[in-house]
Amino acid sequence: MKTTKLYYRIALTVFSLAIIYAVANSIFNYEAIVVKFQELGYPTYLISVLGGAQLMGIAVLVFNRSTWIREWAYAGFFLNLAFGIVAHLLAEDGNGIAAVLCIVALYVTYVQNKRLNEHNNSITENTHTQPTLKTVA
User: Fold this and answer.
1) Of 84, 101, 79, residue with least CA distance to 18
2) Do 96 and 89 form a contact (C-beta atoms < 8 A)?
3) How many domains does the chain have?
4) Please, what are the averages of pLDDT over each run of 10 residues along the chain (137 residues)?
5) Domain membership flag for residue 6
């Protein structure tokens, strides 16, 4: 249990820092990111939309305990990173290794989160036992 939580926190920290760096890079190097988006064939208004969505997704993964919205955040990050890899490969603009590393960290975070939830659910199931009726004679 302790190693699962440790792996989860390490992977979540690495993933969060990578996403926060990407958002900060798109803010501070906006002109370079605009050129890159145009080379990849994406509209430039997506820069702010993706940045906002990524920050909201990180907030959900770090602070939210709701399972259904967390699943949507994982799905959104996976699709964002997968499409980023495909776009870079199709444009012959590098291999998107940063996105691949982020997907690996995202996968580790997802699997460890599932294990932690299963462990927490098994603990709560064991503490809530059915009351038994005792007969008094």
Assistant:
1) 101
2) yes
3) 1
4) 86 94 93 89 91 95 87 94 87 80 93 85 63 65
5) yes
